[in-house]
Amino acid sequence: MTFTPSAPLGAAAADAPIAVPPKGGGRRRRRSRFHSGSRIAILVVVIGYLLLPLVAMLEFSTRGDYGSRSLDSFAAIFTYPNLIDGIVTSLEIAVLTVFGMLLLLVPTMIWTVVRVPRMRRVVEFLCLLPLAIPAIVIVVGIAPIYQWMGQHLGGIGGSPLTLALIDIVLVLPFAYRAIDAGIRGVDVGTLTDASRSLGAGWPRAIVQVVIPNIRGGILAAAVLAVALVLGEFTISSLLSFNTLQVVILAIGKRDAYTSVAVSLTALVFAFVLLIVIARFAPGAGSRGQGATEEEEPLATPTPSTTGAQ
Amino acid sequence: MPDAQVLTPASTGSQGAGSASGGAGSRRASGLRDYLALVPFHAYVGLFLILPTLVVAVGSLTTAEGQATLSNIQAVFSDEVIIDAFATSIKLAVITAIAGAIFGGLLAWAVATGDPNGVLRPLVVAASGVLAQFGGVMLAFAFLATFAGRGLVTLFFKNVAHLPIMSDQSWVYGLTGLVFVYTYFQIPLMLIVFLPALDGLRQEWYDASASLGGTSWSFWRHVGGPILAPSFLGALLLLFTNAFSAYATAAALVSQGAPIITLQIGNALTSEVVLGRENVGKAIALGMIVIVSLVMTLYALIQRRASRWVKQ
User: Fold this and answer.
1) Inter-chain contact A135–B193, Cβ cutoff 8 Å?
2) Does the beta-carbon distance from A267 to B23 stay under 8 Å?
3) What are the helix (H) ranges across A115-240?
4) Is B66 among the domain residues?
5) What pLDDT was estimated at residue B30?
6) pLDDT tens for residues B95-148?
7) Which residues of B touch A228 (CB under 8 A)?
8) Cys staple from A42: which of A271, B104, B110, B215, with CB 3.0 to 4.6 Å?
9) Quick check: A172 contacting B, CB < 8 Å?
């Protein structure tokens, strides 16, 4: 850092947002031959490394008899009742997680912006906290609680759908960033003041005025929640619930082809979901909110250390 | 929020919310009622995040009957298998964090210098999101479809290239396999974390350096490098934590034993518990919390420094 002249750089940084839009505009346009050559080499090698296993999955799952190609492995998905059950269970958990997360987070976040800005840091800290506590540690701590629920709450307590309770926590960092980007894009305070001065109560101001204005962020949060729940393994496996990933692993021991087929389908599904939020969410891509946008683009999920892998 | 109803919109009197008097005014006045609206959120996080963490912390310092003891901690430190697992986990996390940071950083640079409105960037970012965050078990199967006995690459070497490499498949299910498959999700995570930092580098800085006679090398040596260094270090720590905490991929891949610490915890949770060792699993988990907390604290400190340049 010794050589960086801080004053001129600071001045340049202060001017920059006016001179160029913060997103995308400030990219270096210089192109030497060496530069573009090494750039393409990196893209080919690294993306090749990332694509190879996916291509292998496609090749592996479409193998037929005697070197032919067939979709039998994909058709076989429907011959495993427990696999279908796992998919249905995971989708049900995903729906519960999305609604629970939105119900918990959206009013709280709007409320902190409008009424108790002092608590904003606290809420943010709590939302990002799951990044610092590995999922497997949460399982260890929550296993006794689930044991208790299974014994005392009857059928509901032992249902795999209770996993939504934990998944809501796991999805908080992702959802917080997404909704926060939506809230930063509009002036929530003015919106609620305006609607309340026109006679709306708080619930109406939030539901009918604020929420429609931050729907991009809400949609992104919901999509990230769905993707996370469909990929969740650690907690459901260790609490002995048969969700999609648990069943995929179980089937893989006997029929690797079908497991690879399901895995590929699920990965492509998650990929499409993320492309969708990259298109429609606020602050993503070239549709950025300009000056109000301070956070990183939200289609890039929050760095996770919750042990999703 | 039932209490919200009490504050009717017309109550713009001398005291109270003063809602019509402008955003700043109404936002400053927060009474006890306003804090009450946050209780559900805090209660939920307390119940499903803080309480489990406390259960781990307290449990690791007590016996199954609830008496204070250090025997669980002692059991962790005196068990060579557990110590080895911790060491292996750290080694695995360090190796894959460095590999992921280098290759992911290069990829991020290649993407960041491309056309900002092109099709490559959103595709790479979305694909990275999937691979880095949601893969888990599925990545293990991707890896197996590539390198296992009947995998694409293995068959290529055997049937097409006729090369004797990759004839022994045992590495796939061991530590070497874990290094490969972990790197596979570390690279995309690095891209996601590091891309905003690269976006923060401004053309003006490069131009300023060039107009003072600087070369590309001197720009990176004296401007770009020092600015990116904290972000790169922070990303490295994040990648370490990510690999250190990972469970699903390893659980799906490793066929024998529990070489890494998350698998040890998994074993402690699912296997028959030996009398007197009921809370050893919690002590291992506490060990993880301690290591991750240290790394994340360091990360937060570095992040504060990194954000000086990045988030303008």
Assistant:
1) no
2) no
3) 120-128, 135-152, 154-157, 163-184, 188-197, 202-204, 211-213, 215-231, 234-238
4) no
5) 53
6) 999 999 999 999 998 988 887 777 888 888 888 888 887 778 999 999 888 888
7) 133-134
8) B110
9) yes
Q: How far is CA B15 from CA A51, A194, A196, B11, B26, in A?
A: 63, 19, 17, 9, 11
Give the distance from residue B205's alpha carbon to the nearest chain A alpha carbon, in angstroms. 7
Residues of chain B neighbouring A55 (CB-CB closer than 8 A)? 152
CA–CA separation, A284 and A296 (whole Å): 9
- Look-up: residue for tokens 């011959």? A79
- Which segment of A80-94, A209-223, A280-294, B153-167 scores lowest on mean pLDDT? A280-294
Q: Which domain holds residue A191?
A: 80-292
SS3 A301: coil
* Subunit contact A8:B38, Cβ cutoff 8 A: no
Would B237 be classed as within a structural domain? yes
What is the CATH number for A221? 1.10.3720.10
* Residue B172 in domain: yes
Residues B51 and A171: their CA atoms lie apart, in Å, by 18
* A135 with B27: Cβ contact below 8 A: no
Work out how many domains chain A is built from and give that number. 1
> Considering only alpha carbons, which residue of chain A is nearest residue B51?
A141
**A53-57, A287-291, B15-19 — most confident range:** A53-57
Q: What is the pLDDT of residue B166?
A: 63
Which of A28, A197, A299 comes nearest B113 by C-beta?
A28
Assigned domain for A110 exists: yes
Nearest chain B Cα distance for residue A211, angstroms: 15
Of A43, A113, A303, the CB nearest to B192: A303
Contact A126 B4 (CB under 8 A): no
A contacts of B129 (beta carbons < 8 Å): 227, 270, 274, 299-301
Share of chain B above pLDDT 70, in %: 85
Mean pLDDT, chain A, integer:
79
Lowest mean pLDDT among A94-108, A287-301, B77-91, B242-256: A287-301
What was the pLDDT predicted at A308? 53
Tell me the residue range of the domain where B239 lies.
80-310
Q: Which CATH number is B298's domain given?
A: 1.10.3720.10
Cα A271–A274–A275 angle (5° rounding)? 85
The candidate with the shortest Cα–Cα distance to B111, out of A271, A13, A27, is A27
